[in-house]
Amino acid sequence: MELAKVMEIALSNQKSLTAFDEWAEGIERRVVELEKGKDIMVDVRMGIQELTIFNRTLSERLQEMKQALDNIIAENKLQHGALGDRIKVIEDGPKKKLDSIWLIVMTAIISAAVGFAANALF
Hints:
Layout: H1 3-121
């Protein structure tokens, strides 16, 4: 084999190796970028998991608060009904007293009239 031909093959192999090295460097840069992207995705996934846990906890707390508010509303309705009944009794109290006083006065007037009439007859 001639020296020129060997040099040509060596030069051709040199160019191929240079191209291969450039391709490998490009692949290496892409791998580094993919690893950075993977790290970012892991961080995002962890953030989403934390938000999911927070939302679940918040939802449970809101359910507890809703139950507590429902209990308070039920207690308020019972108290409102009881207070309404007490107010009605208080409002009806003077009316009953006035009815009693009216009955006593009418009884006294009728008794006086009957006594006066009986006194006039005898």
